[in-house]
Amino acid sequence: MSIHERRRGSWIITFSFIFAMLLSILPLPPNLHAFMPSWLLLTTIYWSMALPHRIGIGVAWGLGLLLDVLRDTLLGQHALVMALVIFLTLHLHQRIRVAPLWQQAITIYVLCLIYMLVIFWIKGLQGVAPDFWMALISPLVSALIWPAVFVFMRNLRRHYQVN
Amino acid sequence: MRLFLLVVLSITLMTLDYRTDTVRSIRAGLSVIVYPVQYLVDLPSNFINWTTDTFVTRHSLQEENSSLRTQNQILKAQLQKFTFIEAENIHLRELLQSSRRVGERMLIAELLSVDLDPFRRQVVINKGSLNDDLYVSQPLLDANGVMGKIVHIYPLTSTAILITDPDHSLPVQVARNGLRTIAVGTGSDNRLKLLYLPNNADIQVGDKLITSGLGCVFPAGYPVATVTTVNTNPSLPFALVLAKPAAKLDRSREVLLVWPSHTSKIKKMQAPCSRTQEKAP
Fold first, then answer.
1. What share of chain B in percent tops pLDDT 70?
2. B177 with B204: CB under 8 angstroms?
3. Which domain does A148 fall in, by range?
4. B122 occurs within a structural domain
5. Number of folded domains in chain A?
6. For B113, nearest residue in chain A (alpha carbons)
7. What is the CA angle B21-A66-B161, rounded to 5?
């Protein structure tokens, strides 16, 4: 792989992360907030699954920190959870990426649920715990859109030959 | 091993952020990095505003202009009286030897249309520490009433917590009889809960609530909410009272930042809010 190709790959990855951040702070009516999928987490899971040698827990931690500032939450909250979930993904990636899409979606549901539960737990420690049922909806939406995200990202990766 | 390090690092960060003020510079630095993202998300709604402002007919502009002119005339007429009343108020307060309230400085800011934490009620405004001397817990109003207060100040933007956030409470009084209570947010956009009102408290549906000025964050006398439900249940120690915020929390785009000022000729004991005065210019 030439340096040129590698650099182009980094640009594609960076742009996909920026796009995921845009989506995660898109203004929505307050009633729909609970249905918001974890865009940045899905994107990071995809890249860490496809390119585990390039996207690891360090990158995930940094992205989580940026999300903390974007969302104005406690600094380190999303960073901690992103690093944890990507750690799990890296352990499972060889099994997840060969599975059919609907089985992948189930795994994604579990990963997103862990993400939400830890976030709710940290919020609970701060004394601002939201309604518990809200924690179950967003991972469900994330799992439902996962096939679309996966196919889109795979086409993106193959088209630009990011390795 | 790396995971362990990162976990320890994030827990340290969270603790520092929750308990102290030391990570504020890290936050500010990162906020400059993510500002382009916020700017991009705000762009479409900015563009829609621009187009609606640009492509209006001459007729509707004229209509708007004349209605604004009428409104301006009425407001100016009311203001004449207000100046007189303010002077009288200052005079009376001097006679009573109590602290005097003078005019407050205001600045118009715009909300960025971005979403923050989906489980909180917070907004981003387009003023930061770079150009304006904002301070933490500065009051935020819109044309109709109190909106919230500033929690974090970054170089280019600031974030404010709304009065409907479940973590926010605000000392208020009933305008009709001066009954004091606390309005806490519920997390839902048009509902506030009033705490610690006994079942026989003199409060009715339709009562206007204004800030009481206790707590020294919000200046006294700004409209906050209107009471919508009064539910008394003799088996509970307090009445369940709900109110609807006066400010248009989900619709306002222009907001006002206020620098409350209190001047006092007498001892500090009688001016407990002088902390805000030191920060105001």
1. 90
2. no
3. 3-26+36-159
4. no
5. 1
6. A27
7. 55
By C-alpha distance, the chain A residue nearest B151 is: A72
Q: Which of A22, A69, A79 lies nearest to residue B41, judging by beta carbons?
A: A22
Contacts of A64 in chain B (CB under 8 A): 10
C-alpha triplet B150, B155, B160: angle, nearest 5°: 15
The ipTM is 0.83
A136 touches chain B (CB under 8 A): no
The partner residue sitting opposite A72, judged by closest CB among B9, B122, B166, is B122
Q: Report the alpha-carbon distance of residue B256 to residue B95 in Å, rounded.
A: 32
Residue B265 predicted with pLDDT over 50: no
B-chain residues near A65 (CB < 8 A) = 30
Please count the structural domains in chain B.
2
At A135 the pLDDT is 83
Instruction: Compute the nearest-CA separation of B114 from chain A (Å).
Output: 5
Residue at B136 is within a domain: no
pLDDT tens per residue across span B47-56:
888 888 888 8
Determine the residue of chain A that is closest to B122 in CA distance.
Answer: A72
B105 alpha carbon, distance to own chain's centre: 14
Q: What are the start-end ranges of the E strands in chain B?
A: 100-101, 105-112, 122-125, 139-141, 146-153, 158-162, 169-174, 180-185, 192-195, 208-211, 223-231, 240-245, 254-259, 262-263
CB contact (8 A) between residue A72 and residue B116: yes
Q: Report if residue B217 sits inside a domain.
A: yes
Contact residues, chain A, for B169 at CB < 8 Å = none
pLDDT of A108: 94
Which pair of tokens denotes residue B267?
A: 């001892």
CB contacts of B121 in chain A (<8 Å) are: 30
Q: B32 lies in which domain range?
A: 2-54
In a domain, B261, yes or no: no
Residue A31 lies in a domain: no
| CA atoms of A145 and A133, how far apart (whole Å) | 20
Q: Of A63, A36, A35, nearest to A47 (Cα)?
A: A63
Whether B10 and chain A come into contact, CB under 8 Å, resolves to: yes
Q: Which one is predicted more confidently, B105 or A130?
A: B105
Record: contact A130-B2, CB cut-off 8 A: no
